TrEMBL record:
Gene from which the chain derives: arsC
Keyword check for Transmembrane: no
Gene Ontology molecular-function annotations: arsenate reductase (glutaredoxin) activity
Database matches in NCBIfam families: arsC
PROSITE patterns noted in UniProt: ARSC (PS51353)
Xref: SUPFAM superfamilies: Thioredoxin-like (SSF52833)
Name the record gives this protein: Arsenate reductase (Glutaredoxin)
UniProt xrefs under PANTHER family: ARSENATE REDUCTASE
Source organism superkingdom: Bacteria
Amino acid sequence: MTTIYHNPRCRKSRETLAILEEQKEEFNIIKYLETPPSEKELTEIVTLLDISPIALIRKNEAVWKENFKGKDIDDNELIKIMVENPILIERPIVIKNNKAVIGRPPEIVKDIL
């Protein structure tokens, strides 16, 4: 089953969701702002994406700039920060068969479908 971590207010997230619908994929939508991933889930997502936690953070968000920018924060703490502030998680994230991509650009999701 395919899973999309989705923010309905984000254009790229909506475009990625449309691709899943066009592909007739069966998928699960997680509105991560309403239901943030746990630390364990987010750690697994980072591992599947094969990136460091800092690469998953939206650094232009006010909460990042005001509270964390320029600080020396380890990976475990970055995961906790994203769980507590899910607006900081880059989106959309699509996972299928132990592969994951960030839908930027949205078409990249086709690589794992």
